Amino acid sequence: MTRSILHLIRTLDPERGGPVEFVRRMAVVHAQAGVHVKILTLDRNDPDWLRDLPASVVECGPGRGLYGFDPLLSAKMTAAARSNTAMVVHGLWQFHGLCASNVSRKLGVPYFVFPHGMLDPWFRKSDRRKHLKKQAYWMLAERRILRGAREVLFTSDHEARSAAATFWPAADYRSRIVPLGVSCAPTDVEPLRAKFFKVFPHLRGHRFLLFLGRLHPKKGCDLLVRAMADLRPPLDLVLAGPSSDPAHDERLRRS
Which pTM does this prediction carry? Predict the structure, then answer.
């Protein structure tokens, strides 16, 4: 029997950061292992996002608001999940997670949940109002969704331990550590080096630190900027990654 996995994610927009890139990488690895991959998204996807993606994509929605509500999603997910061995829910606090829980009970197809850092206690401290909204949804649905999952997947022991204390009451779920991997480094680096120094010519011949990642307050880039300023001898810093918060970007530039 051919193994098949249905990944459920809001969008494949690469600017949405790590979860999208993770799903793309997993699709490649699964295809190499002979596993058929299908991806269901809540929004329409740009054709460029699907280029070189070894998976079929089911587009639903568009979902309404941040929650991604779609009255037809349950039926579409049921049709997509019938022929799959398992489902993987990427992210929390959205309608596709609740639908996966309901569809799993209906079809008997197990599902896994990958929070992708969305149970980090940082959010409890950074935005009290948003945390209270999530606390309410936790008690209404999310806690039950995690309890019904075959496993909840974390990238490290630290993430798993931190997640257990973020919301009340605690959810009795089964967890597993799935470290994130990366592709092999390219062997022909000179064209890439030339492209980098074309953008940052003032760094040629200098020692510098390159930060690659989403530029979000949670990542602590402001702390990194301040720490780099104290280094002796000084070291240049390059921050590279997508951002959806121009005000935060400007604060980093002024740091």
Answer: 0.88
